[in-house]
Amino acid sequence: STAIFVSILVSGTVAFSTSGGVTMLRSARGLGAARALANARTSSLAQRRSRFGALTMMVESTEPVMVWRQGYYENLAGGMVWRRGSYAARGASLAPNARAASGAPTPTVVEAADTSKTEEVEDCGCGEAVSLDDLKANIKVDIEKVGEIIRVMKSEGIKDKALLQPHIDELLALKAKWLSVTGQPYDLPKPGAKPKNEVPKKQAAPAAKGGKGGAEDGDFKITPRAEDYSKWYQDVISAAYMVDQSPVKGCMVIRPWGMAVWDELKDDLNRRIKAKGVQNAYFPLFIPMSFLSKEAEHVEGFAKECAVVTHHRLCANPDGSGLMPDPEAKLEEPLIVRPTSETIIWDMFGKWISSYRDLPLKINQWANVVRWELRTRPFLRSTEFLWQEGHTAHATKDEADAHAREMLEVYADTAREVLGVPVIRGCKSPSERFAGADETYTIEALMQNGWALQSGTSHFLGQNFARAFDVKFQTKDQTSELVWATSWGVSTRLLGALVMTHSDDAGLVLPPRVAPHQVVIVPVGRGKAENDAKVDAFVEKLSADLEKTGIRFHIDNRDMKPGGKFYDWERKGVPLRIEVGPRDVDAGQIVLSARIESEKITMPYDSATAASSILDKLDSIQNQMLAAAEARLTAMTRSCESYEDMKTVFLSASSETNQGQGLWLVPWKCDVENEEKIKVETKATIRCYPFEHNQEPPTGKKCFYSGEPATHMALFARAF
Q: pTM here?
């Protein structure tokens, strides 16, 4: 009974009794013998019970003679160096300087109160002994814990790879550690089960248009949209090498192909923004916490998403376990990692604006922002993402509101003309407004599965931020007034809209105006020197013609079969592929294969007209993609005046895969409570009050939910 009380009530010990009547104590997981004994002897329980005066800390004689030494920091001439853990014989000394560098004590002799026996306690570089059995037990506990997390997530229906993969990676790492420690896999094959292949078979690839062969990472089957829309999206952006998983949970690595698409979009949009009299600038990544607190609605809207910096340097942990924030380096005021820049920009506007001559002031910055997200999806929602944010100050309300609407038109035109994505322009409902805005204007796009995606916003901020930061200007009449403000932005979310609007089950489909390579030239039929020479000469002449017209092209001279190249560029969404072989050179022709068309076409090659013909083909592809997206938007936008009609569809189409949901245009009385009830019941939200249908109040119409006179025509949809 004594042992039971000690193990439960004395933190840091595990107790048991022997036949001799002496209470033996073992250290708990991760705790040294000396520390465990000290915990037991200084505990309130030990002090209350005199019989605890005779305690002996022992190590079982049946334990292995080898122990695991945890890693430690060693102080070398070049600085602190981390030494990895390893097995060593019990009692072996540490490396030179290891104890001092790690903060570990020298081997300790633990004395019992009623005996003269002593025992040397093994030091593993952190001041504590870890036996092989304990190490195996610790790894097993960790494996079971992570496995349970994965099982719970799957039982809740979570299929998002971005959410599951970090835990799966952790589980695999733990099992690999188990294998290295024990020499056998953690998951032993069941009796009668077939042994697993050492190298797993890769998934069969879908038939590649234009030939056989896989891409550089081997064959990879993209999940069909109709089977699992979310998985399809993840597969498409992975197969196209647009993104990769990051070691930081919730963040993504944008690979060169994905970054190249963003750069094309960014360059086009940047020109359009500058054409509106806006100048680019850059502001700090860190924002004083007090700034965020100045605008009440703003801080309430972003408080739960903010990452906070509290220290300005690290130091070695005294217990040798790694690094820790230096207690002496705490900041006087915590800094917020930029979730958006209104507050810090308006602090600067207060310095730059004093007279009506300083207005309007129009500033834009291209930057990254951090908003702590629990559920992430590459491009659509991530903890860190890239964007542009514009901020302007104006002398009048009308001028500011007009500018906010003007920038929304810039976004709508960019989405349509560059990305081939048609959008609906409108005003957000009060519950969906940007924190601190008087009005939020939005462009909403429709994805192939019938869900909406907010693709850009522009905010009329009124005088809220000017009032919070006391930004006033002197008018022509020598009076002092607060300025009027706007802010507007789009992000890498537009790439998600692009993918889900145009791509298919074979992979990514890119509109020519945003494709890094609008044309890829693939020489074929190579092998003979004379054929290679004439094909190369022909390709050089073709390249010169394309370059004159400004077409972005790439010549694929990789040492691989043509079929593999065709498949690779198809998954990357290149709009147009040109094949040139010896026979084509002899016939004076080129073979064209468009990404959105199933058939190849042969075109006579004339150096004077070939490039312009190819340019016309690219324009045709762009127009076809836009037309298909517009037809889908029209077909999947419905009108109704009965909530039950919409509810029935949404409740029977609850998953992302179902394509029957679409957009619903309905008469609506603005009511935040009713809006929330519909969201809870159907998961549909008001995407916007479309400008097109709200130029005049909907007189004579009743709200499809409450039956009261309608105030707006509202667009409901499920949304990403």
A: 0.71
